[in-house]
Amino acid sequence: MLASAPVPRNIGVKERVSLKESCTLPAWMAGRSIALVGLMGAGKTSIGRRLAARLGLPFRDADVEIELAAGCTIAELFDRFGEREFRDGERRVIRRLLAGDPLVLATGGGAFMDADTRATMRREAVSIWLRCSLPVLLHRVAGRTHRPLLNDQNPEEVLRRLMAQRHPVYAEADVIIDCTDDSADITTERVLEALLGYRPPRRLSLALSTASYDVVVGEGLLARAGALLAPVLPQKRAVVVTDATVAPLHLPALLHGLAATAIETRTITVPPGETSKTLAMFGEVVDQLLAGGMERRTAVIALGGGVVGDLAGFAAATTLRGLPFVQVPTTLLSQVDSSVGGKTGINTRHGKNLLGAFHQPRMVLADTATLATLPPRELRAGYAEVAKAGLIGDAAFFAWCEANGAAVIAGDREAQAEAVLRACAFKALVVGNDEREEKPSDGRALLNLGHTFGHALEAELGYGTILHGEAVAVGMGLAFRLSARLGLCPQADAGRVIAHLESVGLPAEPAHLNRRLSASRLMSHMRRDKKMRDSKLNFVLARGVGQAFTCGEVAAEAVEGVLRDAGCLG
């Protein structure tokens, strides 16, 4: 009915439009429109016109466009065709407007309630919710007769009902502005300030054979969790699994963010550390999930480090034959490694992660603000997995690490975000090429650089005594030592790797652990590692920095020799 109507020129402006000094939009907004959403009376039209004038963009009012296309008023459209037909036309008009050149668009109060329209705005525009209190709205809509939803009804009752229905959906907008009785000019200034200061989170899209999802990286994502997750959750119910250390630090912000879009939540809290990755704790988590009346569309959200992500992910993979799952990693290690790729699992007395499943998340939210609460040792341990990405297959990234690793460890938020995004991008390439680690060589197994040695160290010293990232750092140093011993890479490369890891405070050799280690005991642990094939020791080795490969059987004598050279006893 409405989609084929031509786009008219700008309609006349009845009230005075502020024409102060014009502004330039940031580069990331190139080609994107601005869409104002909110209830009737929020001021979308008056503020939209002023905003467009300040930015030098065309202005369109979706309701006016609909009326011009239909040849009648909104009220008449409701009377003749009903709200459903009106919303269908509204959806098509907004899609057409946003498909063209950038503009400022004022939308009708119900437009953002349509899921397709919200998806269009996410692709093509920056959405701004003009949030008003009930008294402000009542004052502004008093005496208006052109609002179909207010005809023959009590305005206060109607607005209360609409606020309850629509506010949780409006909360998905990119920017939220609380509006008062200030003039339209003042409110426009506030909108413009918020718009120019807004920086969208960075997104990395993974397209796998079994699932597609985004890794979202940015600061303050916990507070926006509901807005980010609402489009990907099958229902607005979730169970948050976290641990007793993370809960007081980050759980309130996450729950508040989820509540903003009316996502109902329950919480399961487990003890911190590797000791929670057991069959007993797995059973407790599953029992609590089921006792709370889980449905197959209810999501499990893992808030915490790798332990919580692995445990909650395995519970989600197995409960009711698979529940929707979201990773909200709060450590650098989990943000760059365990939260991406779909591996979940728990430990047994026979070794690490020997029970598990591949279960891809619906989304990964990596809030870099959570890294500020990490002890320095935890932050350094996570950095080992960042450096690993460069060592495996991106020599330029490892050079970036050498130049910026100290800044990452020191808490530089921009450097941390870049490290997380680049490490995840590399892992996404590897995982996409071998999602279930089925390739006999290279493929996803490359991500195990340093892990054969590292898992042996963890098993020998006790899970939690040495952090996983610390064990991997030592393991990478040993892997490059072994590569050099076998004549696969220059000895200088091994020295370069060890020197960089040491420079950021990581242990890169067994001697740095200040423990007397037995080469024979470490060998025994390695023979029980889940990466054993045909009862043979397999390693990821390197021909140089950024040139890792999976090696077939490595002679035990060579491995033992490297361990002894690195200070282990016989």
Compact description:
The protein is α/β, with parallel strands linked by helices.
Structure explained in plain terms:
The protein is α/β, with parallel strands linked by helices and 570 residues long. The chain folds into three domains: 27-197, P-loop containing nucleotide triphosphate hydrolases (Rossmann fold), CATH 3.40.50; 202-374, Rossmann fold (3-Layer(aba) Sandwich); 440-565, Up-down Bundle (Dehydroquinate synthase-like, alpha domain). 46% of the residues lie in helices and 16% in strands. It has 20 helices and 16 strands. The chain has helices at residues 44-55, 62-70, 74-98, 115-124, 134-141, 155-170, 184-197, 225-229, 246-259, 279-291, 306-318, 332-338, 376-393, 395-410, 413-433, 451-461, 468-485, 491-503, 519-527, 556-565, and strands spanning 33-37, 59-61, 104-106, 125-132, 175-179, 202-207, 212-218, 237-243, 264-270, 299-304, 325-329, 343-348, 351-358, 363-367, 538-542, 548-553. The strands form four sheets. Strands 6-7-14-11-10-8-9 form a seven-stranded mixed beta sheet, sandwiched between helices. Strands 2-3-1-4-5 form a five-stranded parallel beta sheet. A hairpin with a 4-residue loop joins strand 6 (202-207) and strand 7 (212-218). Helix 1 (44-55) packs across helix 7 (184-197), helix 16 crosses helix 17 (468-485) and helix 17 packs antiparallel against helix 18 (491-503). The radius of gyration is 28 Å and the shape is elongated. The termini are far apart. The model is unreliable at 1-19 (pLDDT under 50).
